[in-house]
Design goal:
Layout (H helix, E strand, L loop, with lengths): L1 H7 L1 H4 L25 H34 L3 H11 L2 H12 L7 H7 L3 H5 L4 H27 L10 H26 L5 H13 L10
Helix pairs in contact: 1-3, 1-5, 3-4, 3-5, 4-6, 5-8, 6-9, 8-9, 8-10
């Protein structure tokens, strides 16, 4: 997470272009100066555009620092909850890319927390968002897919001895299955995309094929 925060710093990231459209964060497009404008008017418009990007990146860095500070206190779950609550896709992608470098950090709990945010990621027009979502889902299915499928197919028996750990695991697996099924539907609803995004969505559809049916049918 610290690496993601450093990468989002405007100074550190300056040499690289960002796959982000700052106009999506603005209510209206830039206001053009009149035809008989002065050089000062033109510079004001240019600086206004740069200000929009700086504002976007500053917010992104601020959110990353919030998540990093919580994570550094050892509160991994709370950090991920905060990450999801921020509803900032750029920050989510930054953190996911860091977590993908450390597969051991992924647990069933963290997967259940993050998965509800993925349907919006696969609807993104940005190729790197879709690719990161694919990589994360592939890791989740590889590590926990069999556990999820086996757990939902054999729920705890009613009336028998109470096994709290099994019941908790079952509930988490049900949630994970429902999230993966929702993601499968989101991929299908996007339709046929051309280029690399389309290729990635096809691979994601294949990864999710065991979650294509609604639970209980």
């Amino acid at each position: 997470v610290a690496a993601a925060a450093a990468a989002a710093s405007p100074a550190a990231a300056a040499p690289k272009p960002f796959s982000i459209d700052p106009t999506q964060f603005l209510m209206d497009g830039p206001v053009l100066p009149p035809i008989d404008c002065s050089e000062e008017d033109v510079m004001n418009v240019i600086q206004s555009g740069n200000g929009s990007m700086i504002s976007v990146m500053s917010t992104r860095l601020k959110h990353l620092k919030i998540v990093r500070n919580i994570w550094s206190q050892g509160a991994d779950k709370r950090a991920l909850e905060e990450l999801v609550d921020l509803q900032n896709q750029a920050v989510l992608i930054d953190v996911l890319n860091v977590l993908l470098l450390k597969p051991a950090l992924w647990t069933l709990d963290s997967s259940v927390l993050l998965l509800p945010s993925f349907p919006e990621l696969v609807q993104s027009p940005y190729e790197n968002y879709v690719t990161t979502a694919y990589n994360a889902v592939s890791l989740i299915v590889k590590n926990f897919g069999n556990l999820v499928l086996s757990s939902v197919s054999s729920p705890p028996a009613r009336g028998g001895p109470v096994d709290l750990s099994r019941e908790e695991r079952y509930d988490k697996c049900v949630t994970a299955y429902q999230c993966l099924h929702a993601l499968y539907q989101a991929v299908g609803s996007r339709g046929a995309d051309a280029g690399k995004i389309g290729q990635t969505l096809k691979k994601l559809d294949k990864v999710l094929e065991h979650f294509s049916r609604p639970l209980g049918r």
